[in-house]
């Protein structure tokens, strides 16, 4: 249990270190990724107004039932990219949320790029 608490504490420190440097705007929102053991959540956030521009997750909507795997994460990223393109957003800032840019997190970014969003 102590190891799990320490891992989460270190991730939160990395998250805050990255968040000091990046922020999203209406033209270029911040694309934030959160993953749990069962689900993945991705949202495009406008930090200036404090609103979520677009969001997809493996909990609800068309992407319901996707697992925390690389191929499913790519589908999730592509779904968010298509939502963003429908709202005429072509660029975003990628926020890995303290996670390593590897595996599921990387697949979300690649899926968004495949949909035509420039990160």
Q: What secondary-structure arrangement, pairings included, does this model have?
A:
Elements: H1 2-19, E1 30-35, E2 40-46, E3 51-57, H2 70-86, E4 93-95, H3 104-114
Parallel strand pairs: 1-4
Antiparallel strand pairs: 1-2, 2-3
Helix pairs in contact: 2-3
Keywords:
119 residues, alpha+beta, Nucleotidyltransferase, domain 5, four-stranded mixed beta sheet, 3 helices
Structure write-up:
- The structure is a single chain.
- The chain is of the alpha+beta class.
- The chain has a single domain, classed as Nucleotidyltransferase, domain 5 (2-Layer Sandwich), CATH 3.30.420.100.
- Helices cover 39% and strands 19% of the residues.
- It is built from three helices and four strands.
- The chain has helices at residues 2-19, 70-86, 104-114, and strands spanning 30-35, 40-46, 51-57, 93-95.
- Strands 3-2-1-4 form a four-stranded mixed β-sheet, with helices on one face.
- Helix 2 (70-86) runs parallel beside helix 3.
- The chain is globular and about 45 Å long.
- The N and C termini lie far apart (36 Å).
Mean pLDDT: 93
Shape: globular
Stretches with pLDDT under 50, minimum 5 residues = none
- SSE order in H/E notation? HEEEHEH
Q: Any idea of the CATH class?
A: Alpha Beta
Which fold name corresponds to the CATH topology? Answer: Nucleotidyltransferase, domain 5
CATH architecture: 2-Layer Sandwich
Q: If strands are numbered along the chain, what order do they take across the biggest sheet?
A: 3-2-1-4
Helix content: 25-40%
Number of domains: 1
> How many whole angstroms does the radius of gyration measure?
14 Å
Count helical runs.
Answer: 3
């Amino acid at each position: 249990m102590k190891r799990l608490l320490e891992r989460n504490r270190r991730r939160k420190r990395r998250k805050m270190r990255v968040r000091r440097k990046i922020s999203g705007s209406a033209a270029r929102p911040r694309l934030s990724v959160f993953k749990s053991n069962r689900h993945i959540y991705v949202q495009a956030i406008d930090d200036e107004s404090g609103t979520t521009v677009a969001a997809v997750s493996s909990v609800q909507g068309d992407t319901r039932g996707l697992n925390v795997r690389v191929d499913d994460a790519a589908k999730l990223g592509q779904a968010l990219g298509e939502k963003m393109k429908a709202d005429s957003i072509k660029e975003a800032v990628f926020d890995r949320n303290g996670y390593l840019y590897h595996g599921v997190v990387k697949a979300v970014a690649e899926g968004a790029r495949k949909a035509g969003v420039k990160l």
